[in-house]
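I am still learning, so would you mind making up any protein sequence you like and the tokens describing how it folds?
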Amino acid sequence: MPILDKVSQKMATKMASSEEEPLPKLPVPPLQQTLATYLKCMQHLVPQEQFRKSQAIVRRFGAPGGLGETLQQKLLERQQKTDNWVSEYWLHDMYLNNRLALPVNSSPALIFARQHFYDTNDQLRFAASLISGVLSYKALLDSHSIPTDCAKGQLSGQPLCMKQYYGLFSSYRLPGHTKDTLVAQKSSVMPEPEHVIVACRDQFFVLDVVINFRRLSEGDLFTQLRKIVKLASGEDQRLPPIGLLTTDGRSEWAAARTALVKDSTNRDSLDMIERSICLVCLDAPGGGDLSDTSRALQLLHGGGCSKNGANRWYDKSLQFVVGRDGTCGVVCEHSPFDGIVLVQCTEHLLAHMMQSSKKLVRADSVSELPAPRRLRWKCSPEIQSHLASSAEKLQQIVKNLDFTVYKFEGYGKTFIKKQKCSPDAFIQVALQLAFYRLHGRLVPTYESASIRRFREGRVDNIRSATAEALAFVRAVVDHKADIPDQEKLQLLRDAIRAQTEYTVMAITGMAIDNHLLALRELAWDLCKEPPEMFTDETYLMSNRFVLSTSQVPTTMEMFCCYGPVVPNGYGACYNPQAEAILFCVSSFHSCKETSSLEFAKAMEASLADMRNLCSAPQPAPGQPPATKEEGPRPRSGPLTLTSNHH
């Protein structure tokens, strides 16, 4: 391995100093505080009669000497014994227990700026440079030289838990019949693994990246990738598209894998994939236009089995896609790490590639490297049947996804900060306004909040559908003529304040979702029957996130996207920039009530309305508020959207 340069040595010093002071443990919120907040979050989202019933159930649960107090005490004991009392519960509930297929339903994608490849060699040079970047980044991880992240925004400056980074290249999600397993390899003095899997034309190849104790150069990697493309092109060598099996529901894939491992050839091939550093998928052109929307779809599901849908292995944590048509990015298996860790890693790789692009990489003709190995598969009739079923279901996923990338160009973070507001809170209120515009109600909303300030912290939930947000959206949509702009502006500021307060509560470990989850899991162990607290319709509804949102900011030209988490829901990922806001909106065609295009239009109108309220002239002291007609009314630019209509 190359010796770390001076910059890396400085990073190592910074990392070492941060490791001297372990992060605090995640606190356990007071029981009564969580129960009161839970009721406050749900009161305006359910019918009055239902809420009164739920209120009584919560009162019984939290009564002195009752079940709630018993579970709370057990949770406090668990906090003492573990590094993080919720991490295992959360991982199983959020990911490993979920039986849905990974594409669209679980695995997010990061889409890079479109590349322009003159020929296949250009595509392979890009892939070689990317693999080289992965290896240099992995070397930093193996030597624990990654600098410690610090919190930004609310309560900035605090050091954050770095554990997730160590799952980037060493994790694998193993399918199970009832529950998956997250397998994490332990690194040794000579770090394992030392190979990357390259997918090309639905086949898999082992690319050794360390040969005779030497890490391959970019020129060597380019040479090996050219050999792989040549091997994959031999029509007589075509093998069944086994990667399709990883696109199926988790229980179905577990059954297919059980059939696969009966044969030793298949066992060896699976082992090589499962122990690899990452996947690099050399995609064929996806066909159609190369808009942001189309490129995102290629990353989310590969376009189905007729395109690049089988040129994937979804159980691997990182799949870097390098398409011949310039569609590039990364698909991640989400269970080992969160979006911001993926972005940090990817931005490091792209920076590395920008540096290496200054020199033209050529094939090394002197080097006599052993040829990459094609992975072989033995397919029984049972496996052929699984493949046919997987292919059919992937086509349904492709057809069902209603997705659009939309760039709002009316304003961005600069304008919002001038209003002395958190850009994230401002956008979250706009999302509530957009949803209310379309559906006439608010719904339980999920916004991920990092709790990496604590040991082994992942995320908790910011519940953005606040009572204050409801008061504001009703004022805008239901009573446009009745309520003066000044009053609407005050309601907007109240909604932003409530959102900001809940955000601070979440990132400091005081939100309700993780707490209620842990109490529920402890109750399963303790009680013969599930307590009514956790079977009550209000609690069940509180966990059906019709609106699933996440801010994933980037400093380079790329964006993140994912699918909805419920059949009648929306996924809304956004990337606030200085003068624009990029939205990726997803929903399902199978739900007649939802439309990603209509949601994007509603976001346009909502953000314009909110700017107009903020820009309206303020009345002088003692003067009545301006009437609706007074004051400038700037409009945002025309709405230009692309969407995949089936």
